[in-house]
Design brief:
14 helices; 321 residues; mainly alpha
Length: 321
């Protein structure tokens, strides 16, 4: 019975992670679309406001109360970095590069999570992690070089997406210890609220731009707050609290492919071949860093000495004594 219960929890965690990946993939497309009408800060604030309203309503209905004191350092850190800085940097980056390129660069996040976990959480830095880092950052360099022909702004967009990847990783590393004390809904609700407070300086831009923006752009902004933020961040927290970081990292491998497909379908955008090749290198580096197999095959054990036989096929007399 316990084994069946554990399997059910694992399936729910996988389902929650899948929901997260699909919704986060759709966010890249919505950001690219809404970013034509909203500036990076205004879009981040509008998204966070929408998410906070939905999350706050769910939190009140479920009566989960305030998070324990021990969870607040992680909540505040993630709120400022993951919900605040990450969203502004990603919005800004996607105004300079296409959605698929942004997703390919941001998806080096899992390898940065492992790096920060090894440094800050004392989980160690295995050789496969360092090798994966080299491959992924080589891929990011290829993406940057491939965009250099598009002008400085495109290279700046790649750099902003790298900033988004770093802040995303820092947020996840902050979230891990906080989830030992707070529920996924508590964490997401208050981290989103803190991100909203951090983005309040953009409120003037949001008000003025919302007055002139078409309904489609505003609906995209609200969609970002309700689905990729309120729902997807909560399902991510639920899954992260019930599965290993390695499994969660593996689920994000599909995100760039989904983004490229969605951006082609809805926006008519497809990254160039060299950009795609660099993105695949980024993903290959993540795969190397997450591989359980050592980079070097261990040396075979030394052969065991076998007692020599006499010409008659009998073991020498001194081995019998």
């Amino acid at each position: 019975m316990q084994q069946e219960s554990g399997a059910r929890v694992d399936r729910l965690a996988v389902a929650a992670a899948t929901v997260t990946v699909v919704l986060w993939a759709s966010a890249f497309v919505s950001i690219r679309s809404a970013g034509a009408e909203y500036s990076p800060g205004a879009l981040a604030l509008g998204r966070l406001l929408s998410g906070t309203v939905v999350l706050g309503a769910l939190w009140l209905v479920r009566r989960e109360g305030l998070p324990p004191k021990a969870a607040w350092p992680g909540i505040v850190t993630a709120g400022l970095l993951w919900f605040g800085a990450y969203m502004v940097a990603l919005n800004w980056g996607e105004q300079l590069v296409d959605a698929g390129t942004a997703a390919l660069v941001v998806n080096i996040g899992p390898i940065l999570i492992a790096l920060l976990g090894g440094w800050l959480l004392k989980e160690g830095l295995p050789p496969r992690l360092l090798a994966g880092m080299a491959v992924s950052f080589g891929g990011a360099a290829v993406v940057g070089l491939s965009m250099s022909g598009e002008g400085r702004s495109s290279v700046g967009g790649v750099l902003l997406c790298l900033v988004a990847a770093v802040t995303y990783a820092a947020g996840v590393v902050s979230q891990k210890p906080a989830l030992r004390h707070a529920s996924a809904l508590q964490f997401t609700t208050f981290a989103c609220a803190i991100g909203t407070l951090a983005c309040l300086p953009f409120s003037g831009q949001l008000v003025s731009q919302a007055a002139d923006a078409p309904a489609g752009a505003t609906l995209n902004m609200i969609y970002l707050g309700v689905f990729p933020t309120a729902i997807a961040f909560t399902t991510w927290g639920y899954a992260l609290a019930r599965t290993s970081a390695g499994k969660m990292g593996a689920t994000t491998y599909a995100a760039p492919a989904l983004v490229v497909f969605m951006s082609w379908l809805f926006l008519g955008e497809v990254p160039g071949l060299i950009t795609l090749a660099g993105g695949l290198l980024c993903l290959a580096g993540v795969a190397v860093s997450r591989s359980a197999r050592p980079l070097r095959r261990p040396a075979p054990p030394e052969p065991t000495a076998v007692p020599a036989e006499s010409p008659s096929g009998l073991i020498d007399a001194h081995t019998r004594d």
